[in-house]
Design a protein that fits this description.
The structure holds 2 protein chains of 2 kinds.
Chain A: E1 2-9, E2 17-25, E3 28-34, E4 43-46, E5 51-54, E6 56-61, H1 100-106, E7 109-114, E8 122-130, H2 136-139, E9 140-150, H3 153-160, H4 169-193, H5 205-214, E10 220-224, H6 227-239, E11 244-248, H7 256-262, E12 266-268, H8 287-293, E13 298-300, H9 312-321, H10 326-331, H11 335-340, E14 358-361, E15 372-377, E16 380-384
Parallel strand pairs in A: 1-4, 1-5, 6-7, 9-10, 10-11, 11-12, 12-13
Antiparallel strand pairs in A: 1-2, 2-3, 5-14, 7-8, 8-9, 14-15, 15-16
Helix pairs in contact in A: 4-5, 4-6
Chain B: E1 6-14, E2 23-30, E3 33-38, E4 47-50, E5 55-58, E6 60-65, H1 103-110, E7 113-118, E8 126-129, E9 131-134, H2 140-143, E10 144-146, E11 151-154, H3 157-164, H4 173-197, H5 209-212, H6 215-218, E12 224-228, H7 231-244, E13 248-252, H8 260-266, E14 269-272, H9 290-297, E15 302-304, H10 315-327, H11 331-337, H12 340-346, E16 363-367, E17 376-382, E18 385-388
Parallel strand pairs in B: 1-4, 1-5, 6-7, 11-12, 12-13, 13-14, 14-15
Antiparallel strand pairs in B: 1-2, 2-3, 5-16, 7-9, 8-11, 9-10, 16-17, 17-18
Helix pairs in contact in B: 4-7, 10-11
Classes of the chains: A alpha/beta, B alpha/beta.
């Protein structure tokens, strides 16, 4: 048994608890509250009235598959040899020894999505992992959490330079539809074969993944910046009656009411950084606030290595300054991404039964002087300043 | 019936490897097999080698080489181990490309290495089947112990470097894993069709050599021999082996010690090396001789390799010596790495790897300690015949 005491606890599931205690047992949160009795022999971590919050969750990164500081050898996120590779799994490309993971725990980020890149229309499955460990299989919280797809400039730039389809937005949409149709055909054949085993099609790993999308076991995670691309993504999701969430959602504020009405979640970012592409010119810190007011669930993302994951709190502070309320901004880096990733029963808030992924900071997370003092994952201190 | 061909090695210090302490005495060889070891009555008709002052070891084994498929002292003409035109070439067989005249085999015999595994290279996700053979003593077909000792597979930098250069899959680790899974699923589909066809030739799928070559893997008759250096690649290899319930050996395994628990739990053996060359790639930066000790002490069956021609085949003994010198590992345990452990990993320990009655008479007689750079091999014997020195 371990306890964090004297914390200003932002549980993200109710009011801030002053002088709060969090009891941790076997890596899980056992209890949280003020004046909790401590069982005899409890190991104490005294927060000295500092800020305590759930570990930060980043819903969209490429840590470990675009490794820091090395070139080709560590570049494993974009299989630019075929625009439809649903059978690829981010899990198989992650190197837990990527130094970026050290940056993540030092920045208080304890859980994140690793997704394939956006070169392909269908890139492969994304995985939710903790940021601490040597063996990726042991770090997994949920796999897969969704199928990465991409719209807009990236797929058409990559494949037009190879003189292949897609070289236009029309073809991007068409490739996605074709693959979903092929998967539906496969699914129907499987159904028919239930009565007659002779009719069963050969097992096909590509179509198998898309069937999981069609059955709504996992959502499409659509990389889309421009409003027209976001709209196309939602159009296709509705045609096939599948779940979808929008990654980047850079021009989401231009169609906020539409997105609110469609109830799609948005993973906005990276908002820090330059705008090197046409589809990024309307990048704005006010997008998350506008989306929130339109009823959209928002998470903030670093897109590491596009922007370093440990700087997510800076992005959050600027988004808050541009109009997203403080509590909503904190939710956008904790419980909201956890919900979008389908792992909110494990992470994203300090509540009994959840994983003890907790950070202690020497000030408010949006204050420029604030540093993470301790990071706990599954109840273990994995970083200490 | 002709009289049995007999050879007796007398007055020897015999390191059987079956046990730690050497035996003083003789080894009697009949028709290429070990007939007796120890205090043996020597038949009058036996040829005699007096090994007084010398030591006898089982012939050494390198379980991962490209001998004869990547020929020394030649360019393109002798390079036959990487078919870099298709990342899945399970239908290829190393045996079809081995040139037994390659000088490396002579150097192996000279160094007391009597058994090697020859594998396709690591450019392809599935490179083809590997073969185990003696380094001398007859024509190629007579030397073969196992025509198919497992299917060579590869993850990490090599396949993605080769095929990204051709703008083909795999150009990422994700792509490599996906191709491997796909090939295994295709073979499962093929197997399923054959099973479903039963006795009905109409329903039998056309014979497919690519898929056929993977059936022994799926049936666990042979392992995937998986080239993997980095810990994440080893983890991916183990993940896929579990998904398909297949056997695997970890070849190179440069970072296996960094994920020791998972490797131990997998039950897979590790063929470590070449540990002495320069780490020329990102994925080999963490290679260390310490890994040999760490893995061995954790219960993993470990063998050493030169990866010839990456290191010259005779350096197998230098590598073993370096393990003792750098890690303090017990000498006997290190001798096991290049004898019985290698034999087990190759599935040929019923034939080679120790000096025991019934096994092949593959023996090496040393003047001096085998790890001593200055020691000399007096004789190398394969199947009871002296193969070194050649004039003997």
């Amino acid at each position: 048994m371990r306890a964090i005491i004297n914390g200003k606890v932002y549980t993200m599931a109710g009011k801030v608890i002053e002088g709060g205690t969090i009891l941790i047992e076997a890596g899980k949160i056992k209890a949280v509250g003020a004046n909790l009795p401590l069982p005899h022999g409890t190991e104490i971590i005294d927060a000295n009235h500092k800020h305590v919050m759930p570990g930060i969750v980043d819903a969209h990164t490429h840590i470990g598959i675009f490794e820091q500081g090395i070139g080709f050898e560590g570049a494993d996120g974009n299989e630019m040899t075929n625009p439809a590779t649903p059978h690829l799994r981010a899990l198989d490309g992650i190197n837990p020894m990527d130094p970026a993971f050290k940056g993540a725990v030092a920045g208080g980020i304890t859980c994140l999505t690793v997704a394939p890149g956006s070169a392909n229309v269908i890139g492969g499955t994304a995985v939710a992992i903790k940021t601490w460990g040597k063996l990726v299989d042991d770090m997994v919280v949920r796999d897969p959490i969704g199928l990465k797809i991409a719209f807009g400039e990236n797929p058409k730039r990559v494949y037009s330079s190879q003189k292949k389809t897609p070289s236009t937005r029309m073809a991007v949409a068409s490739i996605l539809r074709e693959n979903l149709v092929a998967a539906r055909n496969y699914m129907e054949k499987m159904e028919r074969a239930k009565e007659d085993e002779e009719k069963a099609p050969d097992r096909d790993l590509k179509l198998e993944v898309l069937v999981r999308v069609l059955k709504k076991e996992i959502p499409l995670r659509a990389h889309a910046h421009r409003a027209d691309d976001i709209t196309t993504a939602i159009r296709i999701a509705e045609e096939f009656d599948v779940d979808i969430c929008i990654e980047h959602c850079t021009e989401g504020h231009l169609i906020a009411d539409f997105l609110g009405e469609k109830k799609v979640a948005a993973m906005v970012g990276p908002t820090l950084g330059t705008r090197p592409k046409i589809e990024l010119v309307n990048t704005s810190f006010s997008t998350p606030g506008i989306l929130f007011r339109a009823g959209v669930k928002v998470a903030l993302v670093s897109d590491h290595p596009v922007f370093p994951v440990e700087q997510l709190p800076i992005q959050a502070a600027l988004v808050h300054k541009a109009g997203l309320p403080e509590e909503e901004t904190l939710k956008a880096i904790t419980i909201n991404p956890a919900e979008i990733m389908g792992i909110h029963h494990r992470v994203g808030s300090i509540e009994p039964g959840k994983d003890a992924d907790i950070i202690i900071l020497n000030g408010h997370p949006f204050d420029w002087r604030t540093k993470v003092e301790k990071t706990l994952i599954d109840g273990e201190i994995v970083y200490e300043r | 019936m002709s009289a049995k061909k007999m050879l007796a090695i007398i007055n020897a210090e015999i390191h059987t490897i079956a046990q730690k302490e050497p035996i003083q005495g003789s080894i009697l060889v009949e028709d290429g097999k070990i007939a007796a070891v120890g205090q043996v009555e020597i038949p009058a008709e036996a040829d005699i080698i007096d090994a007084a002052g010398a030591s006898v070891y089982p012939g050494f084994i390198d379980p991962h080489t490209h001998l004869g498929v990547s020929e020394q002292g030649m360019g393109w003409e002798g390079r036959d181990y990487n078919e870099i035109t298709d990342p899945v070439t399970s239908q290829l067989r190393a045996l079809d490309a081995i040139n037994p005249m390659e000088d490396g085999f002579r150097e192996a015999r000279e160094a007391g290495i009597t058994t090697v595994m020859v594998a396709p290279g690591s450019a392809n996700i599935l490179g083809g089947s590997t073969a185990v053979l003696k380094t001398g003593g007859g024509q190629l077909h007579q030397r073969v112990i196992k025509e198919n000792a497992g299917m060579k597979a590869a993850l990490g930098e090599n396949p993605k470097r080769v095929y990204s250069g051709q703008k083909r899959i795999p150009s990422t680790r994700m792509g490599s894993a996906a191709l491997l899974r796909e090939a295994l699923v295709n073979a499962q589909n093929y197997m399923h069709k054959i099973k479903r066809a039963g006795d009905d030739p109409e329903k039998m799928p056309p014979r497919d050599l690519k898929n056929e070559a993977l059936i022994p893997v799926l049936k666990k008759e042979v392992p995937l021999r998986m080239h993997a250096h980095r810990a994440d690649d080893i983890a991916t290899a183990i993940r896929i082996a579990r998904e398909f319930d297949i056997d695997m050996t970890l070849e190179h395994a440069s970072e296996a010690h960094l994920i020791l628990d998972r490797v131990v739990e997998s039950g897979f053996s590790a063929i470590v090396g070449p540990s002495m060359g320069t780490p020329g790639k990102i994925e080999t930066q963490n290679k260390t001789l310490e890994a040999v000790k760490i893995l061995s002490e954790a219960g993993v069956t470990v063998a050493l390799t030169t990866d010839h021609p990456v290191l010259d085949i005779y350096q197998l003994l230098h590598a073993a010596a370096a393990v003792v010198r750098e890690t303090g590992m017990d000498e006997y345990q290190v001798l096991r790495l290049i004898t019985i452990n290698a034999a087990r990993i190759l599935g040929v320990d019923n034939r080679v790897g120790s000096i025991e009655v019934g096994k092949d008479a593959d023996l090496v007689i040393f003047r001096g300690h085998p790890f001593d750079y200055l020691s000399t091999v007096m004789y190398t014997i394969i199947d009871g015949d002296i193969v070194y020195p050649p004039e003997a």
